[in-house]
Amino acid sequence: MELIELDRVTRSFTVRTKAGRWRRERRQVRAVDDLSFTVRAGECVGYLGPNGAGKSTTIKMLTGILVPSSGRLRVAGVDPARERVALARRIGVVFGHRTTLWWDLPLRDSFELVRRLYRIPPARYAANLARCVELLSLGDLLDTPVRQLSLGQRMRGDLAAALLHDPRVLYLDEPTIGLDVVSKNRVREFLREVNAAGTTVLLTTHDLTDIEQLCDRVMVIDHGRVVYDGDLPGLHLAGRSERTLVVDLVEEQPPIDLPGVRVVRTEGSRQYLAFPAEQSAAPLVAAVAERFPLRDLSVREPAIEDVIARMYARVPIG
Ligand SMILES: Nc1ncnc2c1ncn2[C@@H]1O[C@H](COP(=O)(O)OP(=O)(O)OP(=O)(O)O)[C@@H](O)[C@H]1O
Q1: Which residues form a coiled coil (predicted)?
Q2: Ligand 1 within 6 A of 15 CB?
Q3: 104 with 167, same domain?
Q4: How far is CA 34 from the centre of its chain?
Protein backbone atom coordinates (compact mmCIF):
# COMPACT_ATOMS: atom_id res chain seq x y z
CA MET A 1 0.00 0.00 0.00
CA GLU A 2 1.25 3.49 -0.89
CA LEU A 3 1.43 5.77 2.16
CA ILE A 4 3.02 8.78 0.50
CA GLU A 5 2.12 9.76 -3.06
CA LEU A 6 3.35 12.74 -5.03
CA ASP A 7 2.05 13.13 -8.55
CA ARG A 8 3.71 15.86 -10.64
CA VAL A 9 4.06 18.19 -7.65
CA THR A 10 5.55 21.63 -8.26
CA ARG A 11 6.14 24.41 -5.75
CA SER A 12 7.39 27.79 -6.91
CA PHE A 13 8.41 30.84 -4.90
CA THR A 14 8.58 34.41 -6.07
CA VAL A 15 11.89 35.96 -5.11
CA ARG A 16 12.86 39.60 -5.55
CA THR A 17 16.39 40.23 -6.71
CA LYS A 18 18.24 43.50 -7.14
CA ALA A 19 18.56 44.61 -10.79
CA GLY A 20 20.44 47.89 -10.85
CA ARG A 21 20.50 50.59 -8.19
CA TRP A 22 16.78 51.09 -7.61
CA ARG A 23 15.09 48.41 -9.59
CA ARG A 24 14.10 45.04 -8.24
CA GLU A 25 13.15 42.09 -10.40
CA ARG A 26 10.67 39.41 -9.48
CA ARG A 27 11.79 35.93 -10.37
CA GLN A 28 10.15 32.53 -9.98
CA VAL A 29 12.18 29.81 -8.25
CA ARG A 30 10.95 26.24 -8.67
CA ALA A 31 11.95 24.67 -5.35
CA VAL A 32 10.16 21.44 -6.31
CA ASP A 33 9.74 20.77 -10.00
CA ASP A 34 7.25 18.23 -11.38
CA LEU A 35 8.13 15.73 -8.63
CA SER A 36 6.53 12.27 -8.61
CA PHE A 37 7.27 9.40 -6.26
CA THR A 38 5.55 7.00 -3.90
CA VAL A 39 6.57 5.44 -0.58
CA ARG A 40 5.00 2.15 0.48
CA ALA A 41 3.84 1.39 4.03
CA GLY A 42 6.74 0.14 6.15
CA GLU A 43 9.54 1.56 4.01
CA CYS A 44 12.42 3.60 5.44
CA VAL A 45 13.52 5.99 2.73
CA GLY A 46 16.54 8.30 2.79
CA TYR A 47 15.69 11.64 1.17
CA LEU A 48 18.92 13.32 0.17
CA GLY A 49 20.16 16.21 -1.87
CA PRO A 50 22.60 19.12 -1.81
CA ASN A 51 21.69 22.40 -0.07
CA GLY A 52 18.77 24.12 -1.80
CA ALA A 53 17.73 20.92 -3.63
CA GLY A 54 14.12 21.15 -2.41
CA LYS A 55 14.11 18.66 0.50
CA SER A 56 12.62 20.99 3.12
CA THR A 57 10.04 22.27 0.64
CA THR A 58 8.95 18.67 -0.02
CA ILE A 59 8.73 17.88 3.71
CA LYS A 60 6.79 21.10 4.35
CA MET A 61 4.26 20.09 1.68
CA LEU A 62 4.02 16.58 3.14
CA THR A 63 3.27 18.05 6.58
CA GLY A 64 0.68 20.48 5.17
CA ILE A 65 2.68 23.62 6.05
CA LEU A 66 3.08 24.54 2.37
CA VAL A 67 0.53 24.17 -0.41
CA PRO A 68 1.83 22.86 -3.77
CA SER A 69 1.62 25.27 -6.72
CA SER A 70 0.40 22.35 -8.81
CA GLY A 71 0.16 18.56 -8.71
CA ARG A 72 -1.41 16.06 -6.34
CA LEU A 73 -0.20 14.94 -2.93
CA ARG A 74 -1.53 12.31 -0.50
CA VAL A 75 -0.18 11.15 2.86
CA ALA A 76 -1.84 8.21 4.62
CA GLY A 77 -4.96 8.80 2.57
CA VAL A 78 -5.36 12.55 3.17
CA ASP A 79 -4.49 15.75 1.32
CA PRO A 80 -1.95 17.33 3.71
CA ALA A 81 -2.75 21.02 3.18
CA ARG A 82 -6.55 20.55 3.14
CA GLU A 83 -6.89 18.10 6.03
CA ARG A 84 -4.23 19.19 8.50
CA VAL A 85 -5.97 17.93 11.65
CA ALA A 86 -6.55 14.46 10.17
CA LEU A 87 -2.96 14.49 8.91
CA ALA A 88 -1.53 15.44 12.33
CA ARG A 89 -2.96 12.23 13.79
CA ARG A 90 -1.21 10.17 11.15
CA ILE A 91 2.27 11.73 11.09
CA GLY A 92 5.13 12.45 13.48
CA VAL A 93 7.87 14.98 12.80
CA VAL A 94 11.33 15.36 14.32
CA PHE A 95 13.75 18.15 13.41
CA GLY A 96 17.32 17.75 14.63
CA HIS A 97 17.79 21.52 14.63
CA ARG A 98 14.87 22.43 16.88
CA THR A 99 12.77 20.87 19.57
CA THR A 100 9.01 20.44 19.73
CA LEU A 101 9.18 19.99 23.49
CA TRP A 102 8.26 22.70 26.01
CA TRP A 103 11.56 24.23 27.11
CA ASP A 104 10.69 25.00 30.75
CA LEU A 105 8.64 21.89 31.48
CA PRO A 106 9.91 18.54 32.70
CA LEU A 107 9.92 15.94 29.93
CA ARG A 108 7.00 14.15 31.60
CA ASP A 109 4.79 17.28 31.34
CA SER A 110 5.71 17.78 27.68
CA PHE A 111 4.57 14.22 27.00
CA GLU A 112 1.37 14.87 28.95
CA LEU A 113 0.65 17.91 26.78
CA VAL A 114 1.18 15.77 23.67
CA ARG A 115 -1.31 13.27 25.11
CA ARG A 116 -3.94 15.99 25.53
CA LEU A 117 -3.21 17.60 22.17
CA TYR A 118 -3.75 14.34 20.32
CA ARG A 119 -6.39 13.01 22.72
CA ILE A 120 -4.49 9.74 23.07
CA PRO A 121 -6.56 7.15 25.00
CA PRO A 122 -5.02 6.54 28.49
CA ALA A 123 -4.17 2.85 27.99
CA ARG A 124 -2.52 3.47 24.63
CA TYR A 125 -0.62 6.47 26.00
CA ALA A 126 0.65 4.46 28.98
CA ALA A 127 1.79 1.59 26.74
CA ASN A 128 3.51 3.87 24.19
CA LEU A 129 5.18 5.95 26.88
CA ALA A 130 6.47 2.84 28.66
CA ARG A 131 7.86 1.50 25.38
CA CYS A 132 9.62 4.78 24.51
CA VAL A 133 10.97 5.22 28.05
CA GLU A 134 12.42 1.72 27.92
CA LEU A 135 13.85 1.81 24.40
CA LEU A 136 15.24 5.34 24.76
CA SER A 137 16.33 5.01 28.42
CA LEU A 138 14.31 8.07 29.44
CA GLY A 139 13.36 6.82 32.92
CA ASP A 140 15.82 9.02 34.83
CA LEU A 141 15.08 12.07 32.70
CA LEU A 142 11.31 12.35 32.99
CA ASP A 143 11.42 14.95 35.76
CA THR A 144 14.18 17.06 34.20
CA PRO A 145 13.19 20.33 32.45
CA VAL A 146 13.91 20.13 28.74
CA ARG A 147 16.33 23.06 28.86
CA GLN A 148 18.58 21.05 31.20
CA LEU A 149 18.83 18.04 28.87
CA SER A 150 21.90 17.39 26.72
CA LEU A 151 21.39 17.43 22.96
CA GLY A 152 21.29 13.62 22.80
CA GLN A 153 18.82 13.38 25.69
CA ARG A 154 16.63 16.09 24.16
CA MET A 155 16.61 14.29 20.81
CA ARG A 156 15.50 11.08 22.53
CA GLY A 157 12.72 13.10 24.18
CA ASP A 158 11.69 14.56 20.82
CA LEU A 159 11.56 11.10 19.25
CA ALA A 160 9.32 9.84 22.04
CA ALA A 161 7.03 12.89 21.75
CA ALA A 162 6.68 12.33 18.00
CA LEU A 163 5.64 8.70 18.45
CA LEU A 164 3.26 8.75 21.43
CA HIS A 165 0.19 9.06 19.18
CA ASP A 166 1.22 6.07 16.99
CA PRO A 167 1.79 7.93 13.71
CA ARG A 168 1.84 5.87 10.54
CA VAL A 169 4.52 8.08 8.97
CA LEU A 170 7.55 9.60 10.68
CA TYR A 171 9.48 12.45 9.02
CA LEU A 172 12.97 12.93 10.36
CA ASP A 173 15.14 15.90 9.47
CA GLU A 174 18.78 15.38 10.53
CA PRO A 175 17.88 13.34 13.64
CA THR A 176 21.52 12.60 14.52
CA ILE A 177 23.05 16.02 13.83
CA GLY A 178 25.48 17.13 16.54
CA LEU A 179 25.20 13.89 18.52
CA ASP A 180 28.19 11.90 19.73
CA VAL A 181 28.79 8.37 18.42
CA VAL A 182 27.06 6.65 21.35
CA SER A 183 23.93 8.85 21.09
CA LYS A 184 23.84 8.43 17.30
CA ASN A 185 23.89 4.67 17.64
CA ARG A 186 21.16 4.73 20.25
CA VAL A 187 18.91 6.90 18.06
CA ARG A 188 19.55 4.67 15.03
CA GLU A 189 18.81 1.52 16.99
CA PHE A 190 15.53 3.02 18.19
CA LEU A 191 14.55 4.10 14.67
CA ARG A 192 15.28 0.61 13.37
CA GLU A 193 12.89 -0.80 15.96
CA VAL A 194 10.21 1.78 15.16
CA ASN A 195 10.46 1.01 11.44
CA ALA A 196 10.50 -2.76 12.05
CA ALA A 197 7.29 -2.35 14.06
CA GLY A 198 5.62 -0.91 10.94
CA THR A 199 6.07 2.88 11.00
CA THR A 200 6.98 4.32 7.61
CA VAL A 201 10.01 6.61 7.79
CA LEU A 202 11.20 9.42 5.52
CA LEU A 203 14.66 10.52 6.60
CA THR A 204 16.62 13.58 5.55
CA THR A 205 20.24 13.51 6.61
CA HIS A 206 23.77 14.44 5.63
CA ASP A 207 25.16 11.41 7.45
CA LEU A 208 25.73 8.38 5.20
CA THR A 209 25.95 6.05 8.19
CA ASP A 210 22.32 6.95 9.06
CA ILE A 211 21.33 5.85 5.57
CA GLU A 212 23.52 2.77 5.60
CA GLN A 213 22.09 1.55 8.90
CA LEU A 214 18.45 2.46 8.36
CA CYS A 215 17.39 2.79 4.74
CA ASP A 216 16.91 0.17 2.04
CA ARG A 217 15.99 2.91 -0.39
CA VAL A 218 17.61 6.24 -1.13
CA MET A 219 16.16 9.10 -3.17
CA VAL A 220 18.39 11.94 -4.25
CA ILE A 221 16.83 15.16 -5.43
CA ASP A 222 18.44 18.14 -7.05
CA HIS A 223 16.85 21.29 -8.47
CA GLY A 224 13.53 19.91 -7.23
CA ARG A 225 13.68 16.68 -9.27
CA VAL A 226 14.54 13.07 -8.44
CA VAL A 227 17.97 12.27 -9.86
CA TYR A 228 18.43 8.88 -8.17
CA ASP A 229 16.04 6.33 -6.67
CA GLY A 230 17.50 3.00 -5.58
CA ASP A 231 19.66 1.38 -2.92
CA LEU A 232 22.80 2.79 -1.30
CA PRO A 233 25.33 0.53 -3.13
CA GLY A 234 23.68 1.66 -6.38
CA LEU A 235 24.14 5.30 -5.37
CA HIS A 236 27.81 4.67 -4.65
CA LEU A 237 28.11 3.04 -8.06
CA ALA A 238 26.33 5.92 -9.80
CA GLY A 239 28.49 8.41 -7.92
CA ARG A 240 31.60 6.26 -8.41
CA SER A 241 32.25 7.08 -4.79
CA GLU A 242 35.14 5.84 -2.74
CA ARG A 243 35.64 4.76 0.83
CA THR A 244 38.99 5.16 2.50
CA LEU A 245 40.89 2.47 4.37
CA VAL A 246 43.24 4.13 6.84
CA VAL A 247 46.08 1.76 7.75
CA ASP A 248 48.70 2.29 10.45
CA LEU A 249 51.67 0.12 9.53
CA VAL A 250 54.21 -0.99 12.09
CA GLU A 251 56.93 0.65 9.96
CA GLU A 252 56.94 3.37 7.34
CA GLN A 253 56.61 1.89 3.82
CA PRO A 254 56.46 3.17 0.25
CA PRO A 255 52.86 3.74 -1.00
CA ILE A 256 51.04 0.38 -1.07
CA ASP A 257 50.48 -0.84 -4.61
CA LEU A 258 47.35 -3.00 -4.97
CA PRO A 259 44.94 -3.38 -7.92
CA GLY A 260 41.80 -1.18 -7.76
CA VAL A 261 43.23 0.87 -4.89
CA ARG A 262 45.00 4.21 -4.83
CA VAL A 263 46.98 5.78 -2.05
CA VAL A 264 45.57 9.28 -1.61
CA ARG A 265 47.85 10.36 1.25
CA THR A 266 50.67 9.13 3.46
CA GLU A 267 51.63 10.45 6.91
CA GLY A 268 54.70 8.56 8.13
CA SER A 269 53.60 4.98 8.72
CA ARG A 270 49.93 5.86 8.08
CA GLN A 271 48.51 5.44 4.58
CA TYR A 272 45.07 6.41 3.20
CA LEU A 273 43.84 3.93 0.58
CA ALA A 274 40.81 4.86 -1.55
CA PHE A 275 38.69 2.01 -2.95
CA PRO A 276 35.25 1.79 -4.66
CA ALA A 277 32.64 2.34 -1.93
CA GLU A 278 30.29 -0.42 -3.12
CA GLN A 279 33.03 -3.04 -2.55
CA SER A 280 33.65 -4.81 0.73
CA ALA A 281 36.73 -3.67 2.65
CA ALA A 282 37.48 -7.23 3.82
CA PRO A 283 39.60 -8.47 0.82
CA LEU A 284 41.58 -5.24 0.85
CA VAL A 285 42.25 -5.52 4.58
CA ALA A 286 43.36 -9.14 4.06
CA ALA A 287 45.66 -8.18 1.15
CA VAL A 288 47.32 -5.37 3.14
CA ALA A 289 47.66 -7.52 6.27
CA GLU A 290 49.29 -10.30 4.23
CA ARG A 291 52.04 -7.97 3.02
CA PHE A 292 52.70 -5.71 6.02
CA PRO A 293 52.48 -5.96 9.81
CA LEU A 294 49.61 -3.69 10.92
CA ARG A 295 49.21 -1.61 14.05
CA ASP A 296 45.65 -0.40 13.43
CA LEU A 297 43.09 0.29 10.69
CA SER A 298 39.74 2.00 10.12
CA VAL A 299 37.33 2.62 7.23
CA ARG A 300 36.00 6.11 6.45
CA GLU A 301 32.74 6.67 4.55
CA PRO A 302 32.52 9.33 1.84
CA ALA A 303 30.42 12.45 2.49
CA ILE A 304 26.98 12.42 0.86
CA GLU A 305 27.79 15.77 -0.81
CA ASP A 306 30.87 14.21 -2.45
CA VAL A 307 28.91 11.21 -3.73
CA ILE A 308 26.27 13.48 -5.26
CA ALA A 309 28.85 15.89 -6.69
CA ARG A 310 30.71 13.00 -8.32
CA MET A 311 27.44 11.69 -9.76
CA TYR A 312 27.25 14.85 -11.85
CA ALA A 313 30.90 15.61 -12.38
CA ARG A 314 31.81 12.07 -13.45
CA VAL A 315 35.14 12.52 -11.70
CA PRO A 316 37.63 10.00 -13.14
CA ILE A 317 39.01 7.52 -10.62
CA GLY A 318 42.71 7.05 -10.14
N1 LIG B 1 9.98 30.70 1.44
C2 LIG B 1 10.80 30.73 0.38
N3 LIG B 1 10.87 31.84 -0.40
C4 LIG B 1 11.68 31.88 -1.48
N5 LIG B 1 12.48 30.86 -1.87
C6 LIG B 1 12.47 29.73 -1.13
C7 LIG B 1 11.63 29.59 0.03
N8 LIG B 1 11.82 28.36 0.55
C9 LIG B 1 12.73 27.75 -0.23
N10 LIG B 1 13.12 28.56 -1.25
C11 LIG B 1 14.08 28.24 -2.31
O12 LIG B 1 13.75 26.97 -2.83
C13 LIG B 1 14.90 26.19 -3.10
C14 LIG B 1 14.82 24.87 -2.32
O15 LIG B 1 14.92 25.13 -0.93
P16 LIG B 1 14.78 24.01 0.19
O17 LIG B 1 14.85 24.71 1.52
O18 LIG B 1 13.61 23.17 -0.06
O19 LIG B 1 16.11 23.16 -0.03
P20 LIG B 1 16.78 22.01 0.88
O21 LIG B 1 17.07 20.88 -0.04
O22 LIG B 1 15.93 21.73 2.05
O23 LIG B 1 18.14 22.68 1.32
P24 LIG B 1 19.00 22.54 2.72
O25 LIG B 1 19.72 21.23 2.64
O26 LIG B 1 19.92 23.70 2.62
O27 LIG B 1 18.03 22.64 3.86
C28 LIG B 1 16.09 27.05 -2.73
O29 LIG B 1 16.54 27.70 -3.90
C30 LIG B 1 15.49 28.07 -1.76
O31 LIG B 1 16.20 29.28 -1.81
Answers
A1: none
A2: yes
A3: yes
A4: 23
